[in-house]
Amino acid sequence: MSAEDELKDAYRRIIDAISAGDAEGLNKLVAPDVVDHNPLPTQVPGRDGFKQWMSAARTAFPDMHGTVEDVMAEGDRVAARMTWHGTHRGEFMGVGPTDKRVSFSAFHLVRFSQDRAVEWWGTADLLGALRQLGATISGP
Phi and psi for 3 in degrees, rounded to 5? Predict the structure, then answer.
């Protein structure tokens, strides 16, 4: 297996750990001092913050799971397009539980060092998720 294939596999294992709610599994895959370049407003730094995000997402969508659609690796970085799926059973961005199923895309760029994620850039279609929940969006 090439080094780039190993990185793609590591990324997939991170998504699998999040899908399983396996916070301990993330210890092997995410560096303690990982830099999340798009954290939640109240997210603490490092791997603890990454786990905090996972906990919040899984509170809103307890059955949340990710499907990796595309993944590419070059050097020490992985770029991926994926889809999150879940049932809305907890508060999400101010919207109370609706029991609606949602699917929304996300894109990630992850830098690895010593087989662990050390930097994470991510963006997700949160507006699309809110629309699927029936939320209305209005301007200021």
Answer: -60, -40
Q: Is the pTM of this model over 0.70?
A: yes
Give the tokens for residue 10.
Answer: 């590591």
Mean pLDDT, residues 106-134: 96
Q: What is the DSSP string of 75-94?
A: TTEEEEEEEEEEE--S-BTT
Q: Are 130 and 137 in contact (CB under 8 A)?
A: yes
Return the percent helix, strand and coil in the chain, to nearest 5.
Answer: 30, 35, 30
Residues 73, 10: Cα–Cα separation, whole Å: 11
CATH of domain 3-132: 3.10.450.50
